[in-house]
Amino acid sequence: ARNTVVLAYQHLVDEGYLVARERSGYYVNEDILAGRVNAEAVEPHSGDMFGPDWSSRFRTTPSRWRQIVKPKDWLNYPYPFIYGQCDLALFPVADWRECSRRALSVGAIRGWARDSIDSDDAQLLEQIHTRLLPRRGVWASSDEILITVGAQHALYLLANLFFGKQTVVGFEDPGYVDARSIFGMTSARILGLSVDESGLIPDEKLDQCDYIYVTPSHQSPTTVTMPLERRHELLARSVDSDFVIIEDDYESEFNYVGQPTPALKSLDHSGRVVYVGSLSKTLAPGLRLGYMVGPKELITEARALRRLMLRHPPANNERAVALFLSLGHHDSLVRRLSHAYKERWQVMGQALARYLPESARMPAFGGTSYWVKGPDSLDTRVLAERAAEQGILIEPGDVFFLGENPPKNYFRLGFSSIPVDHIEPGIQTLADIVHDLA
Q: What angle do CA 178, 182, 186 make, to 5 degrees?
């Protein structure tokens, strides 16, 4: 045993982790603590003198574009009226743990641990094909479905496959910020399309477009729903003007008044609609799983492009989600979320009517947020700063608009991640700040 210990110490000395001091013992090498073993310290050089000028090499600088800013520590705020986050108290931990455990069985690992090249989990494709899409009236075979790393990934693939410098893309104004940035990266021309209380207005501007991006279930950011009559009008116009529709069907699960309106894709008889769906708003945004549905030719090319980017989404996650869907856990979760969100939707609507009666609201009958128009003199950037000082997070609305001089008196209030009993006091305090500023 003594020899073993001596050999172990000698090995650590040889590796440089210890130093031996005669008649004293062994000590940790101070160079190890400083991270300088077997290396001379190198004096850092100024990038201006010796290194490349990185800023001059960037073809594009997305960090400088207008975007929604959310504090990383939003959970520490008592009134986080932000959009796109989930309430961790509603997450089905036990159900997800069960599905993850099954996905980690020996048999399952043999299936997903190998490199699938560009393939998706067959069970997940089957669940989307038989369970998710039919509820939206959409019927598609497995080779017409592609799994993506969230809806944004699907939009990125479509933009790179379709758009060029001469492409005109019709875009809701106000509209989904990240989609606008993705489309803009391709140098396509973004044409703003007006939105009213029924969503995108299908006017003569559509005749100029090659593609239309639309969020008909709950328009981003106004949350209004496009009625059936207008959907038919938009589809008819797509045939007459020869444009393709990219339908982002997010938040279609959350409807609090009446039945959900069928997806545009379900009404499409000419094959002009590419459908994009996501599990971010129902399961968890951090999971990053979505899907697109389109003709086989499109899915073949999108799959090949995805392979060049990331080959395929993590196969273990795909299998866990497939199990989560097949065991009925997703159905139960959607029912639980719908019940909780409907209560928050009602409480927030009542609080806005009570404390901000002079502010206009779009008629939202679902989704997870309210779109509010404040007094003309209100600057919601200033409002957001003042509100944050009181523990309230909101999203200023100017970032959603196209153009260099967007209106500054709009803001969005999300309720998916805030406890219901925090909504009214948060709105009351926010209203006091609005009245002070306006």
A: 160
